[in-house]
Amino acid sequence: MRRLGSVQQKIPCVFLTDVKEEASRKREHQQFQVVATETVNPVALEANVDCAFATEKLDGTCCYVALYQGQPYLWARLDRKPNKQAEKRFKKHQHTHKSCKDFSWNVEEDFKTVPESWIPAHRVKHSNGHPIPDEHGHIPGWVPVQKSNKQYCWHSSVVDYELGVALVLKPGCNDDDLLEITALPLADLQDQTLELIGTNVNGNAYGLGSKKQPIHCLVPHGSIPVRNPPPVNFQLLRSWFQENCEGRVEGIVWHCNDGTLIKIHRHHLGLRWPDGETRLASRPAVVRLGGASVAYSSSEGLLSWFSPLNGQRFSRLQDVKF
Fold it and tell me: Which segment of the chain is annotated as a signal peptide (predicted)?
């Protein structure tokens, strides 16, 4: 499995963006819409995006695998956000200037408290020893997923710390279209970011599981290639998303040779998401837990439910049922 860029920060759009005075399709209560112009972002041009490796942008929640108390742990995304007073000032500035830039923060007083175990994401800038917010007013960071924290119960369901493994969805080895649900050692995923997708994440765009039998899994970022991606051209990309069966994805993330990540989201192009059956959900899938599947049968999380399905193949990912 090809190991690509770790997602630690907001990824820039492949086109320069503009702000429209209309309700956001992506974020509730946001009364403006960020849309792409037809001008390619200079950051993308400088990173030579035309030679980049295009992968599917996944609709879930971002996770990270890193050491915690001496062992590999799954970490959940937790951005440090402004308190009510600071957010009010920030939104007023945003509305007045139609931009988030040049706002002055008091980092020590303007932000909500976070757990002691919280760490800032890589490449977050610091000032006087304090991490400082990005242009959206957030300080990206991570918090370890512990079984005792019910807030992250769906994260917990895909890891077994005693066995040191995580439930992962990845491309099959010998079939371009086949997806594989497997268990990978957390140690092998260390320092990678992944997307948690499933029943109770972001409206379940991929139709996984049900309320009675929720299904979640981790997908390493950059692991699902986009086949025959279109050139970086506004009209060609928009047509591809609307007309090509490979375009039934939330977006594209380009992994450039210099390590830069660039993205496009359907919402940038004024397109709906999800819009019918998604490409990922329609792909065939197989459960491959290997010889260790017996050991997983006593796991507390989803591994015990997948254990009896070892070796079973499904015509579509969304058809996986226990």
Answer: none
Confidence of residue 6 (pLDDT cuts 50, 70, 90): confident
Neighbours of 76 (CB within 10 A): 21
Per residue in 16-69, pLDDT tens?
999 877 665 555 555 567 899 999 999 999 999 999 999 999 999 999 999 999
Calpha distance 65→185 (Å, rounded):
11
Q: 72-121, pLDDT tens digit by residue?
A: 999 999 999 999 999 899 888 877 876 777 788 888 889 999 999 999 99
Token digits of residue 171: 């491309």
d(CA 211, CA 259) in angstroms, rounded, equals 39
- Strands 193-198 and 61-68 come out as antiparallel
Q: Cβ-count burial of 296 within 10 angstroms (0-12 exposed, 13-18 middle, 19+ buried)?
A: buried
Ordered by start, the domain boundaries in the chain are: 1-53+227-275, 59-78+142-223+284-321
Place of tokens 């400088």: 46
Question: CA 80, CA 112: separation in Å to the nearest integer?
Answer: 7
